[in-house]
Write a structure and sequence with these properties.
Four copies of one chain form a homotetramer. Chain A has 446 residues and is of the alpha/beta class. The first copy, chain A, contains 17 helices and twelve strands. Chains A, B, C, D: This is 6-phospho-beta-glucosidase LicH.
């Protein structure tokens, strides 16, 4: 397939991540000759869109490539005839995230913006918007692929798979690529020589085996992983190291988010501590963003500034454009993405989203057969999948009881009473983004 | 089948529960004409065995039934040609249970004698003994049924199913019958009019539907269940009431042990508080037992004393003898027991133990097909199954790392670090009953 | 549940089987105190309805029971407030069945009124009618149970489960009860002492184990089954005896219809031979029916005449009223019926109909968990299930290509070419009952 | 991985196919720098081995490559330190195949050397030998990959997966590549532009979708496939064209061997006819082989002679060396091979062999998740899998009854009586290669 016009629409184009993405498109231009990049944002994001959009234009110009960068507040215009739609929007912005983190902490629960209460509320805010986007896609670009980066990526992909009419959706996360990078660093070898068999869910993905030049080095990696000095894989989660006995018996690679479940106490203590000192992650990022946008304003800047890596989204650019390119070129290489299970992982429903190693074809990702997960991993994965399914259902139906249920069964929540308290306070805090609940459920929240 | 001689051997016959069991055999004598009841215990239990054995003899005599009660310390003699073997032994006695409860509390973890760290260590102590019993059964009574009451009943049944050569094993618990009794009381009707569709695991069983005279009353029961006044189903766990939103969205009956998972904080606080005031449950029971055995010594006592019900094993007698009778008479009625899954619950391995409604035949229980559990229940059930499987594996292999892994993945454990600390202290405390670990693993425990 | 009024509606009430059913209601009156029996038929069946209806009234009168027998051509009136609806109608009557048998034979294919081409066309004629009935039931008796005897019972139950809004449906067949009777006769013991673990599909059901007084006698039965003298289980299929090596390695009881698959050649030869001599089964039955209705006319006859047993429906009465009574009384005994799989048999879709041992409750049958069928049985069962599913789909959609596909994948069909020839000739022969195809597909059939 | 010495051992090296394989190694030498090719055969094949081995040497010499071709009758020497072991031996040679084809025809059954009675007996002869080879491999080359071409490839792979200690086995067939070539020809495009999603079993594989340059052209291909002129995909099976209605409703690509099941009558008639005229396939091939070996003797011949393509093994060379190269280079491309299911196809046991599209890595093939097969395909696939499993079990255990069972449940067999007759006559005919049966089962065969 060689298209004359190749159009990408990026929802939430005013994000500070955009230079990452633009860099990705520039690097892979030979394989993916993008002609139009539409950055779309909402009224409130107009200023940021213009700042980062101008940087994007300067980057493209410096690269000397014929990519037209369009800035717009009109989402329908951006979607019209798009080939790929990427989403990096954040409903309610970092202010909402700060609440996602702060409120649960008051109740002794970690806010966690993906699988914890923060993730629940981010999902409740995001899913209605993503379902609006998919409706517009049906009409305006029915053959386009939706590449979703918006967290909680697993829950959002689940919602699109089960509640939209769009099949062409892939959820993407930088955690797996970060794990590969981390292993490469651990072994002091180039990233390209490492391969990991991934299986699980978003932010709950395991490496079932890991290879260096095709030879399994799992044993060595696990030995090193149980050494506290080596744990730090991604920038925004400090490593604390596993108990050697635990990780050796688990006999699989963990992702950084596993610390929330296998080290809940330490992570909670740390979050409370940080929130008192440097602020929650959202508050830190708000400061970082401010600085980044100051940088972006510099008319002389025409590359992605290195400071962006502090932001935490490392490798997004690589992961995203690698995926888009493989779909476009029908490359059939193996990448870890969020897609429909189709029986690949036993005991997860066939129609649910999983994060697993897939062959990427023009028709999208096809998961490699995993069979059963290791016994020790099976329970937690199933539990998070239950949480994701019920959260998605709550987001779509506006069923307040389901929101309480979702949070109660989340392994980070200490009780149904606290779950309800958190849900109530967060419902109120985010009311403007949760109309699906407030239309009918207002009485409940008195 | 009409046997001339009908022999039951009760391992741990010196238990304070024995009068319950004897009462059960007396009540159902018409259907199950027991001729020999062998109460067997170990040297340390000799005195108790004699006290409770004498009471048993007086009870039988009063009932005017030709049941011979034998007391012995020779397990092989007791097993020889038995038709049913029941187990109610406790390795290490209540002292060990007190440690199971006290030690984890030091680390801020509830000891819980079934699914928590207490359950892990009770399993590690019990499984080697039960596997000795099954080996002797293969030789001495290969056609006998093993009816296991020893907790953690799910883990023990799992171990027998997967690591012994015995097929004829059923795990029994008084929780489901207690739930039926609780519902009957809640609705103020006779127990016989209530039926519940049970599915799940031991101490993690859900009532998927509940009927009064064959008509579903689930909605009404759930409404009442969400009322704090109605929660108290079994004597040894105080009810605290569910959040109405949670239980209504869950839309299934819970068992009392669900409070450990859906109210972990409150249960922990309560356990810490009790341990300071009246002592842990084991300590309370030790006192109760002392009083019970004083009562039992009374030569004039020839019935089960009502004080035994305080002990917490209510309905055991009924559940146990009901099960034995149905096997003996091929009654094909429906009872909730622990048995091999055989595909009844989707996503639980076929060869694993589940607790579910079964038809009881001469060839043992056949589970009714459940299909998939409700989404909200699926995760926690899978997680406890993972914990049970790995714990059983650790018990059989003496693999110390697996014990740490089992405890780390348990949802009640706050981190791998704490898991290891608890395992280490408990290994030391229970060393005399854990030779499978100390033969090879001693080095680890320095 | 004790209802004041208990109403059964029998669709196809003019059938020669009706005296069987009436006898059944009389025998079980104590448990199932029927007050109204509505026999409903179509205009063409009016005369038969009156003859058999009058016999029914005489039978009830002789029994001295207060059951009102109503005869009507108004189906809606019959369904109104019914508690149970039984179906024994035959679209197109025995003339249609004669075509089902004769036409395939011309192409060297056995007509077989259930799983072969005859079954396909009987399904195509019957399913639209049964779906009309279920629509009326939704409106007129939404709590009633549909007890379907109409063949092909598996395919019809599949269609109701998947294409109607009715949940309360059970398919019933006399084959399993006939197998029990056959085994009883083989062992020369009373039927009540025999129990069989059934699993499979309608007319493709296996006995996975068989018990006499609760002790497995499978080995003995299989030995006897491999003796040609013992094979004859049901009246309308002559036994021909299995090769001992085959049945011993299969290690399961077969049903009479297995001969169509494991003895296709002999069954075909026999069918060709019979069709030349005494006529096809339908033709023989037509003669039998004529004689039966002559008998029924006799005003002095007030019991089921023994000649009815020649007709081939032996034990229907017992099976049907036993099932109805167990539902009514919530008896929870075990009976083999056609119901939704719900995971009971692995590798059959959860929502498909299976024929298997179930506990019969007020809420209908709950299948016992089977797990995987024996390897040797798995293939054929899956194949017939594929045939049933696609046939049901063809019946509902009127998709001519699907009808050709269904017949081509049927193991009794020698090729796609012959499948199409048979479909074409049968479509034409049955055109008046297949309007779903002729509305849109007429062009195809030129 | 870059090995200094790269050794391939070919069991049955004296086969007429060997020049295909040698050509393949020459063509892909750049990627797979073979240093030693060991052609091993048995005493009876010595002459052929020398003829074809000399040709192989001349081919290598002409190509100017440093590949050492070794000829040996010592299998252990050939296996010692091999990197890949390929098998193309034929136990009993073409004489045995002629019997496999001729004997069943006497009973009106097609002999078919893979899934029919011929396949059963070829399996019974082959599996004991392959299990000897795998035992030697454990000892002499434990890291080597076994690439099995010997038919019935599905049954042989199943046997190795389940009854050997070797994991590293792949079964290979030229049918899928032939289907790709056929589609390419049908659409008149280059083979490289065609991709098919394969799923099923060996010689029972379906194309679930087919792409030209990444765009699905299934509809077009199926339309063309239903045209009788286009059906001929592989040389040794004449096309006869599907009924358009059948193939359109099936909505999947068939493989040539499907004609045995969906056109059994026509295939049988043709086989009977051919056997009378030109002889069975084995007899034709015997003549072809004679001519081929005459050609091979020509000292001036130093390429694969074009006449070999008549032989029927087209594309073997390409498929085999492509697979070996991808394993060696960890290429991770997608190829259709026979491998362990691991949950890729629902309702086939996880540990059974399937033929499906896999990613080929250094650790072997990883199947892509398929989920459920189309309903219409599911039955036949399950049935052939049952046949393969029981046949493999019969081959390993020497259980005569299982052999009768396997043949009876095969869809090509008209009855258990005929199955037994064929088994008996074939057992006698092949007695010298079936010692596993004759040691214990001789009494049966009187």
């Amino acid at each position: 397939m060689q298209k004359e016009n190749l159009k990408v629409a990026t929802i939430g184009g005013g994000s500070s991540y955009t230079p990452e993405l633009v860099e990705g498109f520039i690097k892979r231009y030979d394989e993916f000759p993008l002609t139009e990049l539409w950055l779309v944002d909402i009224e409130e994001g107009k200023e940021k869109l213009e700042i980062v959009g101008d940087l994007a234009k300067r980057m493209v110009q410096k690269a000397g490539l014929p990519i037209n960068v369009h800035l717009t507040l009109n989402r329908r215009e951006a979607l019209k005839n798009a080939d790929f739609v990427t989403t990096q929007f954040r409903v309610g912005g970092l202010d909402a995230r700060a609440k996602d983190e702060r409120i649960p902490l008051k109740y002794g629960v970690i806010g966690q913006e993906t699988n914890g209460p923060g993730g629940l509320f981010k999902g409740l805010r995001t899913i209605p918007v993503i379902l609006e986007v998919t409706k517009e896609m049906e009409e305006l670009c029915p053959d386009a692929w939706l590449i979703n980066f918006t967290n909680p990526a697993g829950m959002v992909t689940e919602a699109v798979l089960r509640y939209s009419n769009i099949d062409r959706v892939v959820g993407l996360c930088n955690v797996p690529i970060g794990m590969e990078m981390g292993v490469a660093k651990l072994l002091d070898v180039d990233h390209s020589r490492i391969r990991i068999d991934f299986a699980g869910l978003n932010h709950m993905v395991y490496g079932l085996d890991v290879y260096l030049d095709g030879v399994s080095v799992k044993e060595e990696v696990i030995r090193k992983l149980s050494d506290p000095e080596n744990i730090s894989f991604v920038k925004n989660i400090d490593g604390m190291g596993w108990q050697p006995e635990f990780i050796q018996a688990l006999n699989a690679l963990t992702c950084p988010y596993h610390m929330y479940y296998y080290k809940s106490k330490e992570m909670l203590d740390k979050a409370i501590d940080s929130s008192k000192k440097e602020g929650t992650r959202a508050e830190v990022v708000q400061q970082l963003e401010k600085e980044l946008f100051e940088l972006y304003k510099d008319k002389d800047l025409d590359i992605k500034p290195p400071q962006l890596e502090e932001r935490g989204g490392a490798y997004y650019s690589d992961a995203a454009v690698r995926l888009i390119t493989s779909i476009y070129t029908d490359k059939r290489d193996i990448q870890p993405v969020n897609t429909m299970n189709r029986g690949a992982i036993a005991s997860i429903p066939d129609d649910s989203a999983i994060e697993t190693s897939c062959v990427i074809t023009k028709d999208g990702p096809i998961p490699l057969a995993v069979g059963d997960l290791p016994v020790a991993a099976r329970g937690l994965v199933q539990q998070i999948k239950s949480f994701e399914r019920i959260s998605a259902e709550a987001a779509v139906t506006g069923d307040y009881n389901k929101a309480v249920l979702a949070l109660t069964i989340n392994p980070l929540t200490p009780s149904d009473v606290i779950a309800k308290q958190i849900v109530d306070e967060m419902m109120e805090a985010h009311e403007e983004y949760l109309s699906q609940f407030f239309k009918k459920e207002k009485a409940h929240l008195k």
